[in-house]
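Retry 2 of 3 after timeout on previous attempt. Resubmitting structure tokens to design endpoint.
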């Protein structure tokens, strides 16, 4: 499947590009699945600065660490700090119920997602080529009958997780990857310039009937030619 490759000068430009895509969907009161980790934080801050009324939109999580919502490792906490607390009108937020066991939380989230049409899924890219909490060669990569599953711990941080599955992400109208920095260059090459492989899970996630956009800064894109 074709991808739209957007290469910008540096991390701030990449964050601004992602923020513009987020606010476009929020303004249209769409459903958005958000990424965790450190890379999207600035995009969330810029999105909140550009649009403070997110009323009518809904936020979901592409994955979550199975920790309390106030834990520094929590994606829910990240989104609250970088985005939600800066808004005048908040969207509907649907966190993963991490107070449950990982299996129970995944089942509950799978049920919540039934019938939800994601307008945008924002994804990151790990050094090992993972995205969301879909890790290389994990059994979750072959799940086709669930929208959310429990995932084994990732390397950083080493905690159990819940992740959306490939079918759930591929059903989004717009899949957007965001990656910056020279340390992501090899993963970006494997994910976006080589054939799909379970060794690089991000290479397996593409919008099935919509658009896949890859936002990279020049350092992350250096090996793409």
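Retry 2 succeeded. Sequence:
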């Amino acid at each position: 499947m074709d991808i739209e490759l957007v290469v910008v000068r540096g991390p701030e430009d990449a964050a601004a590009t992602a923020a513009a895509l987020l606010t476009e969907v929020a303004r249209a009161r769409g459903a958005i699945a958000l990424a965790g980790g450190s890379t999207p934080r600035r995009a969330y801050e810029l999105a909140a600065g550009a649009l403070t009324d997110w009323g009518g939109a809904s936020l979901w999580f592409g994955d979550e660490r199975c920790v309390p919502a106030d834990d520094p490792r929590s994606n829910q906490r990240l989104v609250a700090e970088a985005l939600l607390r800066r808004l005048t009108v908040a969207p509907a937020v649907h966190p993963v119920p991490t107070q449950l066991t990982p299996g129970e939380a995944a089942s509950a989230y799978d049920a919540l997602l039934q019938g939800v049409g994601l307008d945008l899924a924002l994804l990151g890219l790990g050094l090992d080529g993972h995205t969301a909490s879909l890790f290389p060669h994990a059994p979750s990569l072959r799940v086709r009958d669930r929208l959310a599953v429990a995932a084994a711990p990732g390397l950083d941080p080493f905690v159990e997780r819940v992740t959306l599955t490939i079918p759930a992400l591929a059903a989004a109208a717009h899949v957007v990857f965001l990656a910056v920095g020279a340390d992501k260059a090899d993963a970006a090459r494997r994910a976006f310039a080589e054939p799909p492989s379970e060794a690089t899970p991000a290479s397996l996630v593409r919008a099935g009937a919509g658009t896949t956009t890859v936002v990279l800064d020049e350092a992350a894109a250096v090996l793409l030619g």
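Attempt log closed. The chain has one domain: 4-217.
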